[in-house]
């Protein structure tokens, strides 16, 4: 597992350039351009199980969902941040992607530290130090746990 | 304890007497705005649309503006798919290529009514806060679900109260105010929060309020909202919204705020946001002399008639620098027609401007005015992120229309007060 480290105020243009937003919509179209203007090595280097540890206001800017959709599709299980921008926060829930808002864990992380996550308990362990992070309210957790908003909606519609 | 605007609108929409900060409510927005991204949205739910249909033909407002007219086969195919969807499902509110930027069209066509909730698959949906609307951005997946179910969840945000006093000095405007606020509180200064504007609001035109509300998202805000006053009512009447068709909502006098800020408009000077974040704000003097390759006047932030008028006043009878491409794109067909009728377009064209069709144009880097590596642009848009205008090795500065016009004349960032 590799940990990718980025700073504060990483906006969605850096995570997925605007010039592709109306030509790339599916996971396969998005993957080659993920984080293109932030880290040219990311798209080719990321592997299933890799984590992102980032600063404050991650995902600010445009409402484009390709960063959340793409990161989920390449197998990133979670993003650990000091804070998230609100549209990105919703987009991650809607894709079933786990967001860990925990400034202390971000501060504590040193290169090479082992990171373990327990989403159910709301705990993250960084280099042997354990931190708690806020869990989603039950009604929102249900969306993420269904695998995202579309599976959740399909199930609700089928019961109507 | 009184309730804020956000608490009251969300309570009303959820059928409750009141709401508390952090409470989650289920609401049915009156409108869902989508644009060129409608193609990707309906692509997610093809089977469900066939099986269940759309929940309400009045819910969606669809405007083709982001890459309009289409730039290539793929964007053209997206537009075609959207037109077919609109016809098949009987979507009532559809505006094709050329009508303008979605946020301008929403208000000009009377879809944005005070006291209602509007969501949109575009982050600048917060613009209608200028008219006392609770409007905010969501992603494509949420928009897809809304087309099928008509409902979503919202968390009641805490609120920042910003009190405004006085009037702008000549050459200074709404863009300078909102950039100053964002510079002061930071790109996440209002994250997850609502921003209410109070004080001498009557000193600001409705158009100026749009510029301010539009950039709420650049400080992380969920909504940025103004009270409804006589000017709002007059504006709405002009766009055909009957006074008895909406119920304005505003905060109680004893509502509780997480933060209070105050600005004296007369004390503001022209400012510029430097690359590559919107909160990287300084006075125009600090970056005066920065050489420019392109100047952009337009977008959902500053593409209205008043913006074009301010720029035209500065460039009238003069010629922009031969080193600068001066791109002008009116926010809508209506703005274009008014600016044509009153001679503003001719003034801008004679000064050397290239007039682009109403739409988003170069703002998002998909077509029309993409920058080359090493180039510098001064723009009235709302974002200066790295790569935003299609090239990550280019630099974007943001400013108001007067600063952009004055700078286009000199080919370098310039204080507009020197041209007045």
Name the beta content range of chain B: 15-25%
Q: Using only CA atoms, what is the Rg of chain A? A: 15 Å
Q: Give the count of structural domains of chain A.
A: 1
Distance between the termini of chain B: 49 Å
Strand order of the largest sheet of chain B: 4-3-2-5-6
What labels describe this entry?
A: alpha/beta, Aconitase, domain 4, three-stranded antiparallel β-sheet, 34% helix, B: 420 residues, alpha/beta, Aconitase, domain 3, 15 helices, 18% strand
Describe this entry's structure for a reader:
The complex is a heterodimer of chains A (160) and B (420). Chain A has 8 helices and 7 strands. Chain A has 160 residues and is of the alpha/beta class. Chain A has one domain (3-134): Alpha-Beta Barrel (Aconitase, domain 4), CATH 3.20.19.10. In chain A, helix 4 (66-73) packs parallel to helix 5 (86-95) and helix 5 packs across helix 7. The relative contact order of chain A is 0.14. The model of chain A has no long low-confidence stretch (mean pLDDT 95). Chain B is 32% helix and 18% strand. Chain B is α/β, with parallel strands linked by helices. Chain B folds into 2 domains: 5-263, 2-Layer Sandwich (Aconitase, domain 3); 271-419, 2-Layer Sandwich (Aconitase, domain 3). In chain B, helix 2 (38-44) crosses helix 4 (73-89), helix 2 (38-44) packs across helix 6 and helix 7 runs parallel beside helix 8 (206-214). Chain B has helices at 5-14, 38-44, 46-52, 73-89, 102-108, 140-149, 174-185, 206-214, 230-238, 284-287, 299-302, 305-315, 333-341, 344-350, 401-410, and strands at residues 24-27, 31-34, 60-63, 93-95, 117-120, 134-137, 152-155, 159-165, 194-199, 223-225, 259-264, 271-273, 281-283, 294-298, 325-329, 353-355, 376-379, 395-398.
